[in-house]
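Q: Structure tokens for this one, please.
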Amino acid sequence: MSQTLLGSVRYFPIMGQPLDRSNTMCLDFSGTNKDLSEIDLVSTPVFDAYVFGQLSDAGKQFGIGGYMEHRAIYGRSAVFATSEQDFRNIHLGVDIWALAGTPVYAPLDGRIYSFRDNAGFGDYGPTIILEHDLNGKTLYSLYGHLALTDLEGLSLGQQVRKGDLLCHLGPFPENGDWPPHLHFQLMWDMLGNTGDFPGVCSQSEKDKFQEICPDPNLIIGFR
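A: Here is the predicted structure, written as tokens:
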């Protein structure tokens, strides 16, 4: 039902232009990518050089991927630790990798539900969450790893129109110390959270969070 509802709405391109095979490539951060075992992921400059080296070699502006991906990159930060047997490594959103300062636009009408700087190595950094009325059903969208200046002047309940300039990709280290990218995630239920929402879950919680967090590609339009 949620996929049908999400597919029934016309969205503004979140990066200001359609993401397609001409300007975008898929990036693999799962355990099947052997490159990841050969680079120092804890070093953000090294990680950054790897990501943007791939984009440069392919002649692409954007890298994309990650929804429900079983990732191999979260060992770089204690943020994702639960226990050795139940480590959080299932990605619940889509990442769009691009240069710091790249603008991000609101895909549909909404209001500011919350905003916060989730500071700390490996965290979201500056984060904005919007609340939307989607044909009578409430949908939330999260934008993480932003620029600190994007949080200036915001107020709870502030109206946002489809196509408005919402934020920008932040540089490291202020973006949570990641190579610049947008973490874009959808939620049907905030589970009582404000300012933050889990962007990664453990294998044992996968079914629960997949029900709450629909596929953002239904809005982004890249397959």
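A few notes: Confidence is low (pLDDT under 50) at residues 76-85. The chain has one domain: 2-218.
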